[in-house]
Amino acid sequence: MKPPKGANAVRRAPTIAGDDAWIARYMPVPFVEHGRSFRGCDCRGQHYLILEHELGVRVPEPDDLYRGVDRRDAEDIAAFVRAQASLWRRVEPDENGYPRFALLLFLVAGLPTHVGTSLGGRRFIHTQKGCGARTASLDEAEPGEAFWGSRLEGAYVYGG
């Protein structure tokens, strides 16, 4: 089966055991712009997919959220994120870090447009174009970027 247009190559899931074994289910899911399923998803889609399949929580979103992926669209997405803030409760880290399954909202070019799902503590799972799904730490940086922790706008739990 040919991957959907815009998808990156499917990656093999790492061997993950114990409380984090659920993560392996999401590692081979390719990055697909606007995707919301196991056939492919973007960063927000991955978080919604995890909430639905791991916690039974379905987060509604408008069908017309995305029109494209240019700078103006990023501003529209950021406006949507701000407008939806009332449905999400901000959570602060405790001595162990952020709670598992919290949405971690990151700034990209100064706008809140990238999300990851907390694995508990300072680790998270996320997906990006050209990289696919992977785990990372707030104490790590992407090549040419600041540490994830310095770009973290906040952590949120859905309550809608």
Automatic annotation (TrEMBL):
One of its GO terms (biological process) is proteolysis. Coiled coil: none annotated. Residues 9-159 form the NlpC/P60 domain. It comes from the Bacteria. Keywords: Hydrolase, Protease, Thiol protease. One of its GO terms (molecular function) is cysteine-type peptidase activity. The keyword Hydrolase applies. PROSITE patterns: NLPC_P60. The keyword Hydrolase applies. Belongs to the peptidase C40 family. This is Peptidoglycan endopeptidase. It comes from Caulobacter vibrioides.
